[in-house]
Design a protein that fits this description.
This protein is mainly α and 526 residues long. The protein has a domain of 36 residues. Helix 12 runs antiparallel to helix 13 and helix 16 runs antiparallel to helix 17. It starts with 8 loop residues before the first helix and ends with a helix. The structure holds one DNA strand of 10 nucleotides.
Length: 526
DNA sequence: ATAGGGTTAG
């Protein structure tokens, strides 16, 4: 039932807004063609926006765009917005930039102030050079006084850690608002300068939920989990309502801290407030329950999600691996592949960790090969760490050394540390000495390594070396040693333990039980 | 008629 051909533009928009499926939209599109309404680019504009933003049908949107002989700047920006709204973010950066370059190349239509922010967002996925050239292009075209464009640039530079450039842009804005402030705050946080971020945040004349989220995420990204939870508390106290983004950030912080109680409180909050139980919140819940050791709940949350994103799978695999449920982690991985989800580099960190913890040497090597070969995922240092650990534990030192030699990245402390661990287990004195020396090169201030070297020499009876190392220990390094620390929450009270500290009132009992556990673990080894 | 800041997995 279509309206008569002479219906007005307002009627057209009204009918469009009631299209529930692509089939409806196509009918309206056909009708527009027949009635010659489609020759007006305004019509195409509306159809394109609706196809992309409401029906998430990018191919159809692009066909609408491509069927327009000389798209005007509105159609370009509608197409670029469609790409920007797609998920995952930056999935269509290349297409976005290709269209932007086409505009510049053809000289028509000239990009306006709405085009630059869209192009810049895509440029963030490519590199800072591109951001620079778009910056100069924008300035040459007279857009240097457009705050929105300058804020996009500010954000782009800050994503590459170039805070002085970002700051300069911020100071040059004609009017600073909550968006530009937030961009700067999260820039400092991403650059690891949380102190600056907090100071700026406190100076902000006006805040919204996104501004709070920027600070909370910034703390969490820098390992300040307690602060992240605290700021969330402060935010609620000041009358702001946490949304899905807030909830996932804080859940992640709770997971890292093992704060199951607070995690449950946030779970309850999200439930009561219907804070879009969108995938990010559920992913956060899986991660939080999993990291806190409540794998049953994590699996339950997982089973409750209907649209599982890659992150959903990665969260579960990682948690299972973390708690030594190696077979389950591998099983979930196969399930994931059966469902046609393409694993990424994070998936393989979890999977390889599972193989390492379970001692599945052949499986681990097979998955490493699958990742590197068939799937073409370039191994990162974390993956090499897993492989070194895997081979080292199995005593395959020649293979370990050949992996380390052929790595495309510089070995870090995790790599040499894993090798060292393996050497101690398999009593490989010479290689252990080599590993410790590498560790000391990377981090001369870590006194632990010097102590290990001394122990190693005395175990082997190399007394001259022992004397040399002991002398080194007495010099400057020892004061810099940071004691290891761990904590656990029991009945709303957090118990903290430093390495070698017996301050806890039940320290003696705890140590006795630890010794018993260690003894029974020894028994299980053989 | 269109644009900028805040997620989660290692």
């Amino acid at each position: 039932m279509l309206p008569p051909p002479q219906f007005s533009h307002a009627d057209f928009v009204a009918v469009l807004s009631r299209c529930a499926t692509l089939a409806h939209l196509k009918q309206l599109h056909a009708h527009s063609v027949v009635t010659a309404r489609a020759t007006a680019q305004t019509t195409t504009f509306h159809l394109l926006r609706f196809a992309s933003l409401r029906l998430s049908c990018l191919p159809y949107a692009r066909r609408l765009f491509d069927s327009t002989p000389h798209p005007n700047v509105f159609l370009y920006s509608a197409m670029l917005s469609a790409y920007a709204a797609a998920s995952p973010a930056h999935a269509y950066s290349r297409d976005t930039l290709a269209l932007f370059l086409r505009m510049l190349h053809r000289g028509r239509p000239a990009p306006n102030q709405f085009i630059y922010p869209l192009a810049l967002r895509a440029a963030c996925a490519v590199g800072v050079q591109l951001i620079r050239s778009i910056h100069s292009h924008a300035c040459k075209s007279g857009f240097h006084a457009y705050d929105v464009i300058m804020t996009s640039l500010l954000d782009g530079y800050s994503r590459y850690g170039m805070m002085p450039d970002a700051r300069k842009l911020f100071d040059g804005l004609t009017e600073r608002n909550v968006v530009s402030w937030t961009a700067l705050v999260s820039g400092y946080a991403r650059a690891g300068k949380v102190g600056n971020a907090i100071v700026l945040f406190d100076q902000m004349p006006e805040r919204d939920v996104a501004a709070w989220n920027a600070l909370i995420a910034g703390c969490a990204q820098n390992g300040l989990f307690v602060e992240a939870v605290g700021i969330c508390n402060r935010m609620v106290g000041e009358g702001f309502r946490p949304n899905g983004t807030t909830v996932s950030c804080v859940l992640s912080a709770c997971g890292h801290l093992g704060m199951l109680k607070i995690g449950k409180v946030i779970h309850g909050y999200a439930w009561r407030n219907c804070v879009g139980f969108g995938s990010s919140v559920v992913n956060g819940l899986i991660d939080m329950y999993g990291k806190c050791g409540n794998l049953k709940e994590a699996r339950w949350m997982f089973s409750e999600v209907s649209d599982r994103s890659l992150t959903t799978w990665n969260s579960l695999i990682n948690c299972l691996a973390l708690h030594g449920h190696s077979e389950s982690a591998i099983a979930v991985f196969s399930e994931m592949r059966d469902e046609g989800i393409e694993p990424d580099e994070v998936t393989f960190v979890g999977l390889l960790n599972a193989c390492t913890h379970g001692g599945f040497v052949n499986e681990g090597l097979m998955y490493f090969e699958l990742m590197n070969g068939e799937l073409g995922i370039e191994p990162e240092i974390e993956h090499y760490g897993c492989i070194v650990d895997l081979l080292g534990r199995a005593g395959r030192f020649e293979d370990v050394m050949s992996v380390i030699k052929n790595m495309k990245v510089q070995p870090d402390e995790v790599i040499w540390g894993s090798l060292l661990n393996a050497c101690r287990k398999h009593r490989q004195l010479e290689l252990a000495e080599f590993a410790i020396k590498k560790l000391l090169q990377l981090n001369p201030n870590n006194a632990n390594y010097v102590v290990m070297l001394a122990n190693l020499y005395s175990e082997g009876g190399f007394w001259e070396e022992v004397t040399k190392v002991r002398k080194l220990m007495q010099e400057d390094i020892m004061g810099k040693k940071l004691p290891g620390c761990s904590w656990i929450e029991v009945d709303r009270k957090t118990h903290t333990f430093y390495s070698g500290d017996d301050a806890h009132p039940e320290s003696e009992d705890i140590c006795n039980i630890l010794e018993e556990l260690a003894a029974s673990m020894e028994m299980c080894q053989d």
